[in-house]
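Run log // design_07
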């Protein structure tokens, strides 16, 4: 392995050996993702070093399996290098080569245990048949695993002989160990699992109805409202002179004006905004797609971000992370934006869904009906909207019975 090369301008680093044909494309790929030229130079220098090592070992790119990559990194550290010596450092290069098919794909974890294999197939069912998000699928798998793991082996025989009594007994035995939230999540996951087992012929009967419900009043809690002044404070906390401030302001406007969920905000693409018609395409739960009117102030916030704050990046996400490699946001990024705004505004921390509740409560205060609230929030079940009846003070006042006179008490 040669002595260290200086990380200069990316066009000055020359790559020889088996990786040379991919060097120019790698430079362009890094530039398209928004990397600084100095970072590109270091990455191409790493590529040149790896290419020389492969040549010395009489290997090519198709030999870059994880074990070979680790061997190279050990040799790089032994040669005296102190930077770019981890798997994370070679991830951009390996990702580019794998995308071209020049390097073997990362080794996928193959489920070995029968329970793991079944849960992997269950995940595919949830995605393709139910249209659930990755986050929901992970939750379903997590809460369904204890039930499957508790069945006596072999698993196939246990499922073929599964009875309603076993399902009910599992819930009764475990209920005391769970909180209400975990219990309800387990009920949902287990019912879905049992439907899947019956649909795929593993269980002779559909036993979803054997899963007992968790006691509790569905509409007992009050929806969490946010004071309108707090929403104003959140928006005012964004420094709209910076790219990050413009982006966070756009996020908060989508949450507080349209009542979108965090995942829905993260999923918006550039083509989803119809600027001429003033509409926004929302990718909601269950792969639903709905068009909403785009208020002028929300449209102005989005336009300001796109024109003056959004970096160029591969793909078409509307909202993009602040540092290279530039990619679209996920749900966690949206939640973090709300938490940062709470901290800047000096407010107790709350989540993005609280702003969705605030939209509903504000509509009721302005005289909207529950039906109209459900339409704005895109509820499929009117019972979901019914919880807001308890904060509709004007409507409840007409239902209240007059207090009996003191002498009647």
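design_07 sequence
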């Amino acid at each position: 392995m040669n002595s260290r090369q200086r990380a200069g301008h990316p066009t000055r680093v020359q790559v020889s050996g088996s990786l040379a044909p991919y060097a120019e494309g790698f430079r362009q790929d890094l530039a398209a993702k928004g990397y600084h030229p100095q970072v590109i130079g270091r990455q191409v220098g790493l590529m040149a070093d790896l290419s020389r090592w492969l040549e010395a070992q009489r290997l090519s790119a198709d030999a870059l399996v994880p074990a070979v990559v680790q061997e190279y990194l050990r040799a790089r550290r032994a040669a005296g290098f102190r930077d770019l010596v981890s798997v994370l450092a070679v991830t951009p290069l390996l990702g580019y080569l794998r995308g071209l098919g020049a390097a073997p794909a990362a080794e996928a974890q193959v489920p070995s245990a029968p329970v793991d294999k079944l849960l992997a197939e269950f995940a595919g069912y949830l995605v393709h048949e139910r249209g659930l998000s990755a986050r929901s699928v992970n939750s379903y798998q997590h809460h369904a695993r204890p039930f499957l793991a508790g069945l006596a082996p072999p698993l196939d025989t246990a499922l073929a002989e599964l009875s309603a009594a076993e399902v009910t007994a599992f819930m009764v035995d475990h209920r005391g160990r769970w909180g209400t939230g975990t219990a309800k999540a387990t009920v949902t996951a287990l019912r879905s699992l049992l439907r899947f087992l019956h649909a795929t012929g593993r269980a002779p009967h559909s036993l979803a109805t054997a899963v007992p419900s968790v006691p509790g009043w569905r509409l007992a809690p009050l929806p969490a409202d946010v004071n309108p002044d707090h929403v104003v404070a959140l928006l005012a906390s964004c420094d709209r002179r910076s790219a990050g401030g413009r982006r966070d302001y756009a996020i908060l406007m989508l949450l507080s004006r349209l009542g979108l969920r965090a995942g829905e905000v993260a999923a918006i693409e550039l083509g989803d905004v119809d600027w001429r018609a003033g509409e926004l395409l929302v990718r909601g739960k269950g792969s639903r797609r709905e068009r909403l009117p785009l208020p002028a102030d929300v449209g102005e916030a989005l336009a300001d971000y796109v024109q003056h704050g959004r970096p160029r990046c591969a793909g078409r996400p509307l909202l993009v992370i602040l540092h290279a490699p530039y990619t679209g946001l996920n749900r966690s990024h949206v939640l973090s934006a709300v938490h940062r705004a709470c901290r800047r505004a000096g407010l107790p921390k709350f989540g993005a869904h609280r702003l969705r509740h605030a939209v509903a409560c504000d509509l009721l205060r302005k005289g909207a009906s529950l039906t109209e609230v459900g339409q704005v929030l895109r509820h499929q079940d009117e019972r979901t909207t019914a919880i807001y009846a308890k904060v509709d003070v004007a409507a409840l006042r007409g239902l209240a019975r007059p207090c009996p006179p003191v002498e009647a008490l």
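The longest helix spans residues 37-56.
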